[in-house]
């Protein structure tokens, strides 16, 4: 049986934590930042976690 391949696009966007959760970044941070509030931009810098409904699909894409 061949090894499973990691989805290269998913590996650039998501990282696994030690407990098995998946971290992600926020969208809407690249341009037109003057019209977004300071608090909104600061909170988007922190990133977030994947929703549990999307978790099985993401974990299949990043098996290692």
Overall strand count: 3
SSE string: HEEHEH
Q: Estimate the strand proportion.
A: 5-15%
> Considering DSSP H and I runs of 4 or more, what fraction of the residues is helical?
25-40%
Query: How many H/I helices?
Result: 3
User: How would you sum up the global shape?
Assistant: elongated
Low-confidence stretches are none
How would you describe the overall organization of this protein?
The protein is an alpha+beta fold and 64 residues long. The chain has a domain at 7-12 and 35-64. It contains three helices and three strands; from the N terminus they run H-E-E-H-E-H. The chain has helices at residues 8-13, 38-46, 55-61; strands at 14-16, 22-24, 48-49. It has a three-stranded antiparallel β-sheet. The longest helix is centred in the middle third of the chain and has 9 residues, at 38-46. The radius of gyration is 15 Å and the shape is elongated. The two termini are 16 Å apart. The model has no long low-confidence stretch (mean pLDDT 95).
Main attributes of the structure:
64 residues; 34% helix; 3 strands; alpha+beta; 3 helices; elongated
In short:
The chain is α+β, with helices and mostly antiparallel strands. Helix content is 34%, strand content 12%.
